[in-house]
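Milestone 3.1: sequence recovery, worked example.
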């Protein structure tokens, strides 16, 4: 892709549309690839390609022979001129993408924002849903920074550096030990260790700002405002893919919340010591003032998060510069004051026990549980307003995914704390260790994994029954050809495995419900006993005591293993492009949506890709007046649909939509009903001139869109045969592969449907327009 030649697009020339070679006969096929990415050479089936427009991140390519297709009317071509939009570097470009694995909980909670049920006339309830998800995202930021404070301040600076035996085992902590000199005071150790979580906060802020500039700062075409009635989906609104104001406000609020968390961790221990009888009165007053200022700052952060949601009826380009700059700077000032206050001389102060982390992690766990529970009630109310029988979990997919985001955040936080504690202390048990709540949360992982194992067994049994039923269907479809039982079983098994995708909501429901219940039990156990599960069950029946000890030890081992695997996978992806592409598939699905709930989530590539496609389609149709088939595979079909919604009517009249292996209804319609539900897909069908969808029963991702023809053929073509031939034939002398989700364009039905779409597009062209005249708003 990087070696492709740059070529100026034909529409930049001076030929008037309708009079030059790009007249009514010109036809273009704009190909958009799916998850995992590909190269322009593979998409265009030609080793010689040229870059028409774009850069090294995302660009449009053509075959070298088609570079001047609009200027060469005498060339003989079978079908339209193919163009390839290659966007894979948006999600799997350089090695730094591997670091996005650490942002997984933020990405998941951001998905929950977009999973709300569809509802009409319930604006306040919809706003409440978005508010609850934003607050859940804020709690995840505080949880991440609290975990960093637990590692740096509590385990390292407070416990290990304050224990001579631990400090002696780690020579790099010698200068922080009580015998180490000026830095040996507990408050100064905490102030110095605060650099670590503060630096983490600065890194998250920098990455969020930088990725916004690289991915999401693309101005939408034209800039015209939407009408009051924007239709059944927000994706048609001109400001949907440009939310600068909300992104900047959330970035400022989350940065301030993280800095305030660090300031509270630094100053709370000193303020607690100063309040003890006999403590210095001046420092006690300063501690009260600092805690009051921190509480006021926390209130300001919550107000900013609650105050404003997304504004999609127009591009939201206002900056809110005072708020965006002032809030993080005020939090940073409080952090500096807290460090100075904590580092003040306090004779006789020694570090003992743990920092008050139990209270922090317990409050976060309780708040997240309450937020998810209330969110479930709001989602249920929205679903009852406008029931959609195809919606996943009857509208409760968003709360279930938010619960998983909280669980991922807790597992990652507990995993880091457990591993660092074991590394610092070894097996000598000279340190109190992390808060007992984290140990309780690690102990519920084995029963949760046991539940998942049971669900996997249920899926395997279901797949076996489906495969048995599919064998008769396969024999009927390939009547007269079947005779190889092994071949029949393989085809039936692939179909059965592909059908398991539709059982995903049940797995999510069971996992989320179990996570909520087990998390509540862990919080109750840690609060009631103040001890680890093994210690709390010491006087119980031997079976109960043994189970508690086993769960505690196994949970700690599993959480550590998971953390090591995460780091190893990220390290491998940083060095290995193929592994990075595998991780990129996860981001292809998870980062399609704008960062509306969490500013530190991985960036939204669609805020670059959708404007790219919209600009390309609008400018080409305006310049040539030709016909265009927008051809999208898998996730590319979702991008194609989003771009079609954004097109102006003048361009939409020249566009037909061809999707294949598309998750538009099967995944997006079920999991994101407010944006891809039946009404939204029906409006897309009416907006474009014509639409055809191809799918296979062996495809685990793509499926039908279930829309009628509306005066023409149905949107869905009957399922394509896969494999194309059961055995060896004259056309297929070698065994035909089972393609599943790949290689749709190799099927003869693809060229047939593309030809029909071009025939259905109107051959008439609007009145000729000179290049120098202003075009319609794109």
């Amino acid at each position: 892709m990087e070696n492709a030649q740059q070529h100026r697009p034909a529409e930049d020339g001076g030929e008037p549309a309708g009079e030059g070679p790009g007249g009514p006969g010109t036809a273009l096929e704009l190909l958009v690839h799916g998850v995992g990415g590909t190269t322009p050479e593979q998409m265009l089936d030609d080793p010689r390609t040229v870059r028409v427009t774009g850069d090294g991140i995302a660009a449009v390519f053509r075959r070298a022979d088609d570079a001047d297709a609009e200027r060469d009317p005498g060339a003989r071509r079978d079908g339209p001129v193919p163009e390839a939009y290659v966007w894979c570097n948006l999600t799997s470009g350089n090695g730094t993408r591997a670091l996005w694995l650490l942002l997984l909980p933020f990405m998941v909670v951001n998905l929950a924002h977009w999973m709300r049920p569809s509802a009409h006339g319930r604006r306040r309830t919809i706003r409440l849903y978005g508010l609850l998800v934003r607050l859940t995202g804020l709690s995840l930021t505080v949880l991440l920074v609290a975990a960093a404070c637990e590692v740096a301040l509590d385990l390292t600076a407070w416990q290990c550096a304050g224990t001579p035996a631990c400090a002696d085992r780690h020579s790099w902590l010698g200068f922080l030990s009580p015998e180490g000199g000026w830095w040996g005071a507990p408050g100064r150790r905490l102030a110095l260790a605060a650099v670590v979580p503060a630096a983490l906060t600065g890194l998250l802020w920098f990455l969020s700002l930088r990725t916004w500039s690289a991915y999401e700062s693309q101005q939408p075409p034209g800039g015209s405002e939407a009408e009051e009635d924007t239709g059944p989906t927000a994706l048609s609104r001109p400001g949907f893919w440009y939310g600068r104001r909300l992104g900047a406000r959330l970035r400022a609020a989350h940065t301030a919340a993280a800095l305030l968390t660090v300031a509270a961790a630094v100053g709370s221990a000193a303020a607690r010591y100063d309040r003890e009888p006999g403590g210095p009165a001046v420092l006690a007053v300063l501690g009260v003032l600092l805690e009051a200022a921190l509480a006021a700052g926390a209130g300001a952060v919550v107000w900013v998060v609650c105050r404003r949601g997304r504004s999609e009826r127009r591009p939201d380009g206002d900056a809110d510069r005072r708020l965006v700059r002032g809030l993080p700077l005020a939090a940073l000032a409080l952090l500096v004051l807290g460090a100075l206050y904590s580092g003040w001389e306090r004779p006789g102060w020694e570090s003992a026990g743990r920092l008050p982390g139990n209270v922090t992690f317990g409050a976060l766990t309780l708040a997240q549980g309450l937020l998810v529970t209330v969110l479930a009630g709001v989602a249920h109310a929205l679903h009852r307003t406008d029931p959609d029988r195809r919606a996943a979990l009857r509208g409760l997919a968003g709360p279930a995914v938010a619960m998983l985001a909280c669980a991922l955040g807790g597992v990652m936080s507990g995993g880091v704390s457990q591993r660092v504690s074991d590394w610092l202390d070894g097996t000598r048990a000279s340190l109190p260790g992390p808060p007992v709540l984290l140990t309780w949360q690690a102990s519920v992982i084995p029963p949760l994994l046991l539940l998942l194992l049971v669900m996997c067994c249920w899926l395997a049994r279901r797949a076996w029954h489906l495969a048995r039923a599919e064998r008769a269907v396969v024999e009927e479809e390939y009547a007269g050809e079947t005779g190889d039982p092994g071949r029949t079983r393989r085809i039936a098994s692939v179909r059965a495995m592909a059908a398991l995708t539709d059982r995903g909501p049940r797995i999510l429901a069971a996992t989320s419900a179990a996570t909520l219940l087990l998390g509540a039990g862990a919080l109750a156990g840690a609060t009631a006993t103040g001890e680890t599960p093994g210690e709390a069950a010491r006087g119980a029946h031997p079976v109960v005591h043994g189970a508690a000890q086993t769960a505690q030890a196994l949970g700690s081992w599993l959480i550590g293993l998971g953390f090591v695997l995460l780091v190893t996978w990220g390290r491998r992806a940083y060095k290995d492009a193929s592994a990075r592409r595998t991780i990129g598939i996860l981001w292809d699905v998870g980062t399609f949506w704008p960062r509306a709930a969490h500013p530190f989530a991985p960036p939204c590539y669609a805020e670059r890709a959708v404007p790219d496609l919209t600009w390309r389609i609008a400018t080409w149709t305006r310049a040539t007046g030709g016909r265009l088939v927008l051809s999208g595979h898998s996730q590319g079909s979702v991008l194609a649909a989003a771009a079609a919604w954004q097109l102006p009517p003048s361009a939409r009249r020249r566009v037909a939509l061809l999707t294949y292996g598309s998750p538009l209804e099967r995944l997006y319609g079920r999991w994101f009903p407010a944006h891809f539900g039946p009404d939204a897909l029906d409006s897309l069908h009416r907006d474009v001139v014509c639409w055809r969808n191809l799918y296979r029963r062996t495809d685990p991702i793509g499926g039908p869109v279930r829309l009628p023809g509306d005066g023409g053929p149905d949107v869905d073509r009957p399922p394509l045969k896969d494999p194309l031939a059961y055995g060896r034939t004259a056309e297929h002398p070698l065994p035909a592969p089972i393609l599943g989700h790949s290689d749709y364009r190799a099927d003869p039905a693809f060229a047939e449907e593309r030809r029909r779409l071009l025939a259905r597009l109107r051959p008439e062209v609007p009145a000729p327009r000179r290049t120098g005249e202003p075009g319609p708003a794109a």
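Residues 123-160 form the longest helix (38 residues). Residues 474 and 656 are 33 Å apart (CA to CA).
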